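Example for tutorial group B:
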């Protein structure tokens, strides 16, 4: 009986140590989440301004916009590039696995139509998962998911834009976790290229003809587009990286909080079991004392 009590007490101490770790990880994730939320908030006005200026310049350029390779739709879309945005680390619930599953489902649909897939992955979890599934990666980007920089987005964008301009892919999509709240992350699947199919050239906030007429372009709209279009692709990827980072921290914070609560429940159950064992041992000792006293008398 004493041996059982020692075993239970050892298990309680082990679970308490794990609970300390999960609580510390929860606090770290919460602090990183606040910084990630601030970066998303700061980026949104700039991203919207780039989107608006790109759309207006494309409208002003008219037919001349078709000279830009990134604005031209290929005659067919047989080769599709998929960019999966995951994290470098785990312990974040279904954060990484749901992106990989969404990418695999999208690939299955495209392959059923006879299309060829080109894989790109950001984050070690996505890279390792796709490699484990036997997928060949055209681009693997790791080591920055905790705090992505704009240069990381530019590197990914350069590879994707080059692949599209060189006719290696006919379409590029990005799949990532969109940040809603610490408890909610939504898997988003968006078209990056061709830009004509992305939301940059549409939208409800399209300016009317009078407001467009008051804009003078120097240099001409086509030259401005040559700068704005790559910037738009880069900022779109950067926004996805930031949202994915915030989603990862939110998911990890939630997962660690749940783990801490589960550890507390286990500690409660083990403590009750230890107390019952102790009570049983005391009862047994009392019975032995009583039996011995009766025997003497």
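The residue assignment follows.
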């Amino acid at each position: 009986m004493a041996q059982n009590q020692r075993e239970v007490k050892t298990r309680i101490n082990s679970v308490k140590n794990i609970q300390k770790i999960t609580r510390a990880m929860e606090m770290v994730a919460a602090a990183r989440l606040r910084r990630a939320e601030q970066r998303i908030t700061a980026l949104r006005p700039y991203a919207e301004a780039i989107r608006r200026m790109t759309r207006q310049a494309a409208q002003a350029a008219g037919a001349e916009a078709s000279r830009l390779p990134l604005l031209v739709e290929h005659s067919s879309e047989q080769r599709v590039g998929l960019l999966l945005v995951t994290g470098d680390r785990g312990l974040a619930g279904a954060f990484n696995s749901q992106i990989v599953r969404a990418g695999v489902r999208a690939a299955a649909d495209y392959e059923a139509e006879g299309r060829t897939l080109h894989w790109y992955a950001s984050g070690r979890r996505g890279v390792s998962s796709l490699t484990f599934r036997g997928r060949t990666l055209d681009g693997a980007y790791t080591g920055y998911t905790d705090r992505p920089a704009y240069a990381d987005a530019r590197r990914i964008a350069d590879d994707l834009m080059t692949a599209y301009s060189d006719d290696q892919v006919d379409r590029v999509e990005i799949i990532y976790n969109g940040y809603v709240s610490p408890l909610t992350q939504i898997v988003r699947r968006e078209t990056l290229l061709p830009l004509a199919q992305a939301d940059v050239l549409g939208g409800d906030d399209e300016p009317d003809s009078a407001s467009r007429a008051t804009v003078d372009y120097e240099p001409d709209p086509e030259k401005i587009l040559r700068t704005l279009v790559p910037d738009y692709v880069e900022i779109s990827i950067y926004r996805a990286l930031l949202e994915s980072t915030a989603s990862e921290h939110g998911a990890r914070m939630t997962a660690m909080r749940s783990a801490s609560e589960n550890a507390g429940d286990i500690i409660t159950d083990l403590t009750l079991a230890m107390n019952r064992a102790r009570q049983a041992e005391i009862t047994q000792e009392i019975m032995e004392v009583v039996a011995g006293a009766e025997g003497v008398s």
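The helical segments are 2-61, 95-112, 124-132, 150-165, 209-213, 221-296. Compare this with the pattern of hydrophobic and polar residues in the output above.
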